[in-house]
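Researcher: I'm preparing a figure for a lab meeting and need a structural model of a single chain. I don't have an experimental structure, so a prediction will have to do for now. The sequence is pasted below. Please return the structure as tokens so I can convert it later.
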Amino acid sequence: MKAGDFQIQRLTQPTSGFDPTHSIQHQGHPGAGKAGNAAKDVTPFSQVLDTKIKETEGLKFSAHAVRRLDDRGIMLSSHEVSRLESGVKKMVDKGAQSSLLLMDDNAYIVSVKNRTVVTAMDMQTVRDNVFTNIDSVAFL
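Model: Understood. Here is the structure written out token by token.
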């Protein structure tokens, strides 16, 4: 699966437990619920907020990174994307800002604070480059 396909698939999948057409009622507020509405499901605001936060925590791929993956014939499985996400989470925990992640035969420059893969390259391309403006390296 190409990274762009993965990202599009991820963005088009329905979110679990969140239905934008479902109304949220406030509990404990006078007049919030009438006797006729007692059977309706009530989604707590905190649950909706948690769902939205989790949606933004996933790894993203910039348009440039998607082009580089495509140009260089780099295919990412969902397992490999999970490995990248795990690596980015470790970098977040260490306080990194911009990282070089080396995984198998490929390298990825990642904006850690934005959780975005900025570019991707194979090892042949890596050997011909100098990397600047990174503050950390991880081997996955």
